[in-house]
Amino acid sequence: MFSKLNEIWPGKSKWLILIFLICLFFLLKSLMQPKTYSIGGEADGTLTHNASLSDEDKLKLAEKNYLSWTKSGQGSSIESKKIVIVEYVDFTCIHCYASWPAVLYIKEKYPKVELIIKDRTPNERSLNLALASHCAGEQGYYWQAYDKFFKSQSDTFGTTTAEITKALSYLKLDWDLFNTCLSSQKYLPQIKENMQDQEKLSVEGTPTWFVNGSQFTGEMTNEEADKIIGSVK
Fold first, then answer.
1. Counting beta carbons within 10 angstroms of the beta carbon of residue 11, is it exposed (0 to 12), middle (13 to 18) or buried (19 or more)?
2. Residue 5, pLDDT score
C-alpha cells in the first residue's frame, strides 16, 4: 500500500504514514473514553462510569470517613434494595444551590434512603463554610447550617467568621465551643482526606453524586431524583 503511495507522491510517503498513524492514535483514544449518559437538560448533568473503579469500590470510597451528622435517612431497604446517595457539595456553588431543593425532597420523600453529604472546598469561602457546618453539626445542627448557608449564598458569603456566626445566630449553639472549633479548624483533617478520595473518584466539580456507586455530576431536580432512585437495581 505504502509503496504504491510512494509511486503516486514520490518522497512524501513517510509523511503520509506519519499523518495516518497520528489520526489512528486520536481515533483509538476517543473510542477508549468512558461513556457519559445525560440525566437532564443541563450540559454538565451526566452519568459517568469511572473505568478504573467498579461501582462497588466507588461506593465504598465515597462512603468512607463521613461525619455522622452529615448522614440522613435510615439506610434500610426500599423494596429489598438498599440505596445510598453521597453528594459532594460546595456551599459557594450555584449548581449545588440549584440542587438543594432536591436534597430536601429526597430527605422528605425517601426517609429510608441513606443520604450522606461530603465537602468539596475549592476556595477559602467554601472551606470556611464547610468547617462551620461541622462545628454546628457536632452540636446537632448540621442540617440547619446546611440549609442556612444555601439560603445566604452570595458572591461574598463565607468570607468572614462574623457573617457566618451571624447567619447561624438563631441556633441555640454553645458559642464558645463553636468559635473554638471554627478557629482551630477542627475538622480540616477529615475535609482534606475527603479531597484526596475525590481525586481517586474523578470528582472534578460540584455537585457530584454517587447513587449506589453510579456517578452523576450536575444539577439534580426532584423528577431526576425519582428517576434515579427508581432505577437502582
1. exposed
2. 47
User: Residue 121: which of 33, 193, 38, 174 has the closest Cα?
Assistant: 193
Give the residue extent of every domain in the chain: 1-33, 35-231
**Domain 35-231, CATH number (from 3.40.50.300, 1.20.1250.20, 2.60.40.10, 3.40.30.10):** 3.40.30.10
Short-list 49, 38, 51, 92, CA closest to 205 = 92
Rounded Cα–Cα distance for residues 166 and 152 (Å): 11
Strand, helix or coil at 17?
helix
Angle between helices 175-183 and 124-137 (to 10 degrees): 140
| For range 3-24, the mean pLDDT | 58
pLDDT in tens, 75-114: 554 455 789 999 999 999 999 999 999 999 999 999 999 9
- Alpha helices of the chain — where are they, by DSSP H? 2-8, 13-31, 55-63, 94-109, 124-137, 142-151, 161-167, 175-183, 188-200, 222-231
Region of poorest pLDDT, from 33-42, 112-121, 141-150 = 33-42
| Residue given cell 453528594 in the structure block | 87
